[in-house]
Design a protein that fits this description.
4 helices; about 45% helix; three-stranded mixed beta sheet; rod-shaped
């Protein structure tokens, strides 16, 4: 059974109640002798890791398409000039 404390103690003696929550993990708050609320430690949800980046796929996506053999021959002929 978790320890209990009153709402008045929560208001007037918060450091004591906080210490109870930190050591016990859970504290029941009573109002007029009846359990009403439960204080628990907050735990942040697990941060999901981003998916790994495929750098090779990203690099090849930015690269221009390779020239065909015919396009390469035409470029070579164009760059030769009048020889």
């Amino acid at each position: 059974m978790p320890p209990t404390t009153t709402i008045r103690d929560l208001r007037n003696h918060f450091p004591k109640v906080r210490k109870l929550v930190e050591t016990e993990g859970e504290v029941l708050l009573t109002e007029k002798g009846k359990p009403r609320y439960r204080l628990m430690l907050y735990t942040a949800p697990g941060a999901r890791k981003p998916p790994p980046v495929d750098y090779w796929a990203r690099l090849t996506a930015y690269q221009p398409k390779a020239m065909t053999a015919e396009q390469a021959r035409m470029l070579h002929e164009e760059n030769r000039g009048d020889r």
